[in-house]
Amino acid sequence: MALPLPPGLTPPELAFLCEMELVTVVPRQKLEGLQLLGGPIPPLNPPYRSSLPLWLALLLKRQRRANILPPPWLSPASLDSILQLETSIPQFSDPPSLPPSSSTSIPTSSPFLPSATADASPDALPYHWLEIGEMLLEAASDDIPESDTVRRLMRDLREVRMAKMRAGVELLDGGKEVRMNGVGAMEVAEGRAFVGGVVDGLRKIGAGKETSRREREAEERENGIGQAGDDEDDDMDI
Questions:
Q1: For the whole model, what pTM was predicted?
Q2: Would you say 101 and 107 are in contact if contact means Cβ atoms under 8 Å apart?
Q3: Closest Cα to residue 53, out of 130, 116, 145, 122?
Q4: Three-state SS string across 47-112, please?
Q5: How far is residue 48's CA from residue 52's CA, in Å, rounded to a whole number?
Q6: Are 94 and 181 in contact (CB under 8 A)?
Q7: What span, in angstroms and rounded, lies between the C-alpha atoms of 122 and 119?
Q8: Across all residues in the chain, what is the average pLDDT?
Q9: Given this model, what pLDDT does residue 180 score?
């Protein structure tokens, strides 16, 4: 008998989906093009840059066939600026802006946006910022300037943003709504358990209050409290 799966995507599943994100590489040797399910990969000719799926870029990096250019937001200056912004506002920082669309173009989203390439926005965190950053720091730390500082800033950003998510849960407890724009995929997966628990608890509390109210009204009707009130209304009509 199979065990029930938890709701939502698990962190390993998110990391697998994140590997479809495009990153910029600089090949170290010539490589022929490939025909993949996700689309054709053009031939690689050093020193010209090329955009490849993250999984293929990591494979070429491990084989020492290419170097990975980190996205602009994965630099100490950009991460420090984003961290200062996160600590100065109560909500999450805004995600990267979507490219302008026309009436004939199809709306695109990750992983079909250049959110992790060398042309990405330097002042906003993409949807898979945490997964991309951890993968690049693990497999291509020598390609990232000041990798130790980048790792520390990413840890600080993660703690600050998770604290905001916990604060949002407290707002839910008070019956208020929470603005979740800019939350990353891994943050959603990590916060799903306790956020879902709080929402289920609030739902049970609301259901219990409604049941108590109905029982109280039924008891009052049985004791004649409601009927006496109706008689008084009739007398007033006369």
A1: 0.74
A2: yes
A3: 116
A4: CCCEEEEHHHHHHHHHCCCEEEECCCCCCHHHHHHHHHHHHHCCCCCCCCCCCCCCCCCCCCCCCC
A5: 13
A6: yes
A7: 9
A8: 81
A9: 75
63 or 103: whose pLDDT is higher? 63
pLDDT of res. 187: 86
The reply to whether omega before 47 is within 30° of 0 (cis) is yes
Contact between 124 and 95 (Cβ < 8 Å): yes
- How many Å apart are CA 48 and CA 28, to the nearest integer? 10
End-to-end CA separation in angstroms for the chain: 71
pLDDT of residue 5: 60
- Read off φ and ψ for residue 169, nearest 5 degrees: -65, -35
Question: Token pair 């008084």 is at which residue?
Answer: 232
pLDDT on residue 233: 47
> For residue 40, is the peptide bond before it cis, meaning its omega torsion is within 30 degrees of 0?
no
Mean pLDDT calculated for residue range 20-36: 91
The confidence score (pLDDT) of residue 14 equals 86
